[in-house]
Amino acid sequence: MTSDVALEKRNQLIKDGYCVVDDILTQDFLEELRRESDRMLDAVEHPPHWKYQGSDIHVRGIDESVIDRLIHWQPTRDTLEEMGLGDFKSSGGFIILSKPPGGPPLYWHQDWMGWNDPISTAPWPQYLFLSYYLIDTSLENGCFRIIPGTHLKRIPLHERLVQAHAQGGYYVEEDDPDMFYDHPDAIDLPVKAGSLVIAEGRVLHAARGNQSDQRRTLLLGWHNRPPMPPDYWIGDVPKVIKNRDPNAQYEATREPGEYLV
Q1: What is the pLDDT of residues 12-46, one digit of tens each?
Q2: Backbone dihedral region of 149: left (phi > 0), alpha (psi from -120 to 50 degrees) or beta?
Q3: pLDDT digit string (tens) for 187-200?
Q4: For the chain, domain boundaries
Q5: Global model pTM greater than 0.90
Q6: What is the chain's alpha carbon radius of gyration, rounded to the nearest angstrom?
Q7: Which residues of 3-29 are buried (b: 16+ CB within 10 A; e: fewer)?
């Protein structure tokens, strides 16, 4: 990746809350990840509350060598360094998210649990998920959807969503008009197998349903960085971050509060 492309990707991530890096996986490693993911998917029961995510299998690198290799995948580490994101660290595992044939859409949600913390106002990427897609995605088989900029700006939809996953999203109706709203600013993001989507945990995102006859599988890993401005940042730093008590404890919540304006 050239320095110009790396800067372009980082600027898109800052502004829109996502970027895509194509061909990050080799063909051999991609095929290995497919085989191992299928093995793990076939080995577990899929409870009813997984229906919107498709699956929710958390795999630690210390338990599966293929996941450990993915955590330390050098092309990804090089890409993050080139983008100025080298201070992001893996949570230590990946989640297998595989939407089966006929699986319904995934509802709109964001995954930031730190809305009580002033770091929520960070105008730079602070909490990222890295999603490796193991097959080509399309509108038909459940591609990623996102509402750009919603990691930094509140929109009316924020007020109408129930909290994601176990906090309420598991139990919404499939025709819920807000959770599955066709928002006019939403974009679909089809990608090729082996591509990496880097996205902000604070951004509103979802996925289309899978109307194809095969699984749509991705591997998602959470990455975090220290609660301070990154070295490359030359813009303004919010006052609440300058005054943030580094020793304070903030109660976890998915509910955006005063720090999302």
Answers
A1: 999 999 999 999 999 999 999 999 999 999 999 99
A2: left
A3: 999 999 999 999 99
A4: 3-242
A5: yes
A6: 18
A7: eeebeebbeebbebbbbbbeebbeeeb
Angle 127-131-136 (CA atoms, 0-180°, nearest 5)?
155
Task: Please list, in sequence order, all residues whose beta carbon lies within 8 angstroms of the beta carbon of residue 139, skipping any fewer than 6 positions away.
Answer: 188, 190, 208
Q: What is the pLDDT of residue 163?
A: 85
Query: Whole-angstrom Cα distance, residue 156 to residue 166?
Result: 23
Q: Which of 95, 111, 92, 91 is nearest to 57 (CA)?
A: 95
Q: Which token pair is 31?
A: 């095929």
Query: What SS3 state is found at 214?
Result: coil
| Superfamily of segment(s) 3-242 | q2cbj1_9rhob like domain (2.60.120.620)
Rounded-to-integer distance, Cα 59 and Cα 39, Å: 13
CA distance 221 to 237: 27
Neighbouring residues of 37: CB distance < 8 A, sequence distance ≥ 6: 96, 98, 134, 217, 219
